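Listing S7. Sequence submitted for prediction.
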Amino acid sequence: MKKYIFISPEGETIAPNGNEVENMQVIGIVENVTNENEALKKLLLENEWIIDAEFNIAEFICYEINYSR
C-alpha cells in the first residue's frame, strides 16, 4: 500500500511581521491506498472541510511519500 501527501497552492498566512504571505498548504496525508486517484477520493471522503472551504481540487499537487522502516 502507498502513502500520499496533498498540497494546495491556494494558501495564505500571516508572517511574524504581520504581512500577508502567499504559500503552499498541506491539505492532508492519505495512507493505505493503491494509487493517487484512490488517495484523492479517500482524502475528500474523510475531510469534508476541504469542499466546504472551497478549495480548487484541480489545483492540488500530489506526491507519493516513500519511506523505509
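Caption to Listing S7: primary sequence and predicted C-alpha cells for the chain studied. Helices lie at 36-46, 49-52. Strands lie at 2-14, 20-33, 61-64.
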